Amino acid sequence: MGTIIVGAGGHGRVVLDILRQAHHVDPVGFIDSNPVLRGREVDGLTVLGSLPDIPELRRRLSIDAAIVAIGDNATRDRYAKVLSSQGLRLVNAIHPKASVADTVRLGRNIVVAAGAVICAHCRVSDSCIINTASIVDHESFLGRAAHICPGARLAGRVIVEDLAFVGIGATVIQCVTIGRNSTVGAGAVVLRNVEPFTTVVGVPARRLESSEDKKLAAAVEAVAS
Ligand SMILES: CC(C)(COP(=O)(O)OP(=O)(O)OC[C@H]1O[C@@H](n2cnc3c(N)ncnc32)[C@H](O)[C@@H]1OP(=O)(O)O)[C@@H](O)C(=O)NCCC(=O)NCCS
């Protein structure tokens, strides 16, 4: 039986490479919503069609499993649920040069890229990406469809809630919580909890005001002066 990779973009290519290097699942093709890609080869693997084609493809080909290789957290999470409801088994892609401690509990549809390290007693929920050379230290918890970007480092007992994004090269000190759907900017150093649905940047990390926040602050200042 074979596995389809959903998403034939940059992250899809990384996932294909991991599956080939790990040798534990057999990728039979990509699925991608871009009609231009249909029938084309991406790194030697054919784009078989888009999501609505899956039931027909399953009748013709021996497909029993899938992995969603889409960078956007919410889309990856949604597609994983759709594929699972269609009876496909969601598999993990763990690079042979990643280090995952024996005591780590992993969900499904997880990507652990080359050089990533997940230390003792961490829990990683469904659809997370632990990207190239990132570190998730002891007893940390990653919620559903979180993304720890390349080179990011989480100290021990960090909680990253569902759908949160920890940007490239960011550092998070121990016992901090990164709230649901929040974003930690590239290179930030996070010393305090990050509220859900907020973006923080810089060293130390501070909330990045949205354009709406800025308009509100200007309006308040105008009234005050
Ligand atoms: C934090 C981030 C999401 C903000 O994106 P954005 O909302 O489009 O913000 P903008 O680019 O409009 O920048 C807004 C302000 O924040 C600053 N800023 C943006 N990202 C920053 C960062 N990582 N660190 C420090 N300051 C940053 C900008 O310089 C700008 O400042 P200004 O208003 O004084 O000019 C983005 O810059 C970022 O860091 N993304 C992470 C990318 C990443 O990790 N990619 C890896 C994928 S695998």
Give an overview in words:
The chain is α/β, with parallel strands linked by helices and 225 residues long. It folds into 2 domains: 2-91, Rossmann fold (3-Layer(aba) Sandwich); 93-204, UDP N-Acetylglucosamine Acyltransferase, domain 1 (3 Solenoid). 21% of the residues lie in helices and 28% in strands. The protein is built from 4 helices and 25 strands. The chain has helices spanning 10-22, 54-60, 73-85, 211-224, and strands at residues 2-6, 27-31, 41-42, 45-49, 63-68, 89-90, 93-94, 99-100, 105-106, 111-112, 117-118, 123-124, 129-130, 135-136, 141-142, 147-148, 153-154, 159-160, 165-166, 171-172, 177-178, 183-184, 189-190, 199-201, 206-207. The protein has an 8-stranded mixed beta sheet. The protein has a 6-stranded mixed beta sheet with strand order 3-4-2-1-5-6, with helices on both faces. It has a 6-stranded parallel beta sheet with strand order 8-11-14-17-20-23, with no helix packed on it. The longest helix is centred in the last third of the chain and has 14 residues, at 211-224. The structure holds coenzyme A. Coenzyme A (COA) binds next to strand 24.
Defining key terms:
single chain, 225 residues, alpha/beta, Rossmann fold, UDP N-Acetylglucosamine Acyltransferase, domain 1, 2 domains, eight-stranded mixed β-sheet, six-stranded mixed β-sheet, 4 helices, 21% helix, 28% strand, globular, binds coenzyme A
The CATH topology of the largest domain corresponds to UDP N-Acetylglucosamine Acyltransferase, domain 1
Spatial sequence of strands, sheet with the most strands: 7-10-13-16-19-22-24-25
Number of helices: 4
Shape: globular
Radius of gyration: 19 Å
CATH superfamily of the largest domain: Hexapeptide repeat proteins
